[in-house]
Amino acid sequence: MKHKKLKIGILGFGTVGQSLYEVLQKSPSTSAVIEKVVARNPNKKRNIEIKNLSFDTREITESTEIDTVVELINDDIEAFKILKTAFENGKNVVSGNKKMIAENLQKIIDLQNQTGQSILYDASACGSIPVIRNLEEYYDNDLLQNITGILNGSSNYILTQMYRHNKSYNEALTEAQEKGFAEHDPVFDVDGFDAMYKLIILTLHGFGTIAKPKDIFFTGISGISESDIRFAREKGLKIKLIAHACKVPGNKVALFVMPAFVEQKNYLYNVDDEFNGVIIEGDAYDKQLMFGKGAGGHPTGSAVLSDISALSHQYKYEYKKLHLPKPPGVSDDILLKLYFRYEKPETIDILPLQTIEEQYVGPAFHYTVGTVKLADLLINSENLRKFVSFMALRNISKESIITHYANKKHYRQQLIPVD
Ligand SMILES: NC(=O)C1=CN([C@@H]2O[C@H](COP(=O)(O)OP(=O)(O)OC[C@H]3O[C@@H](n4cnc5c(N)ncnc54)[C@H](OP(=O)(O)O)[C@@H]3O)[C@@H](O)[C@H]2O)C=CC1
Ligand SMILES: N[C@@H](CC=O)C(=O)O
Question: WIF domain: from which residue to which, for each copy (predicted)?
Fold first, then answer.
């Protein structure tokens, strides 16, 4: 295949932009030369001194020299404008901006078709793990059933530090920020937005389904307390923030993001710190685990480097699953067994429970374990965010995710005690 030397412009010179700059120096065989780097704040002190730094986006998007725009800024609205201008000016794009990508999937596909340009964004999901390209290329058949993964490195880092080293939530969050794992606004990480956007991207490449954020129930770890960690420890479990895309009957896929209690035998149990892990499950091959650093400048820089190299070989996403005769729709028709911890006893009245399996009423907090329809979580999400301090899937195995609850017989068979 023809191989082209790229002239790149890097937009954004923060954690990932600077790391890409360094990673590129370590890979002289990559066919790319940095023509220009653009950041926003001319008064900011930089760790790396470079000659070709400027503060005007147009010096990249409107340059006649640059053919590839590497967008690594922390502003999704601006990032979409940059993408559009770059395409209109005949440039390809590499990006790590999951919010911009997930919020605009259809528009991005249309723009690629209209302009003939392409965007690669493997860095947008799971940092250094090449999960998007694998879903696109290797799993390009009908066998895939579930994608289950730890997709947010910051939350995983915080949970690990709390569990393993008894650190406080705030201390662990500060460390995640200092290490360059967290987003500009860490609420994006700890309240599940980041994992939800990544799940949307993986669902497109895995199943051909374009889901909207409003279709996805998501919650994060910001309300976690020592009592939740104790609950997990006593039962030999760990808490992880997990995103799920599960194929359900009727050619549908159910999507949700929430903390979960994870047993030792699960592949994700030992995925700790800023590492991500994605279990890909399908007919014929059962389960496979992709594992690697999911956050941080250099791991993410390496994914960006790989996309730059792929562009130099004219690689583009074909969105193969999108062209299936009938890509799956989104379903909220599943039942989940959840743990809810709350402070006020009357909160039990707003929990949309189908069954109650365990309850604790104490002086400082209360918890209930019971089953809930995913559809009811979506409808009640505002109240749940307001009144429930922390919620988690009781177990990430089949006992806690029941996809056939409409079929009562199957439901009874599946709803067996987990411990
Ligand atoms: N950190 C990580 O581990 C990962 C991050 N990502 C994604 O990569 C992107 C960058 O993240 P990260 O490097 O951590 O973010 P940082 O906050 O560290 O850096 C952002 C950079 O963008 C620049 N910037 C912001 N707005 C503009 C603009 N309008 N024009 C030009 N430059 C601008 C900032 O300029 P200035 O320096 O002047 O303030 C800064 O250099 C985000 O989309 C993030 O979600 C993806 C995977 C992992
Ligand atoms: N903030 C993100 C960075 C990578 O996407 C995370 O913590 O996973």
Answer: 377-419
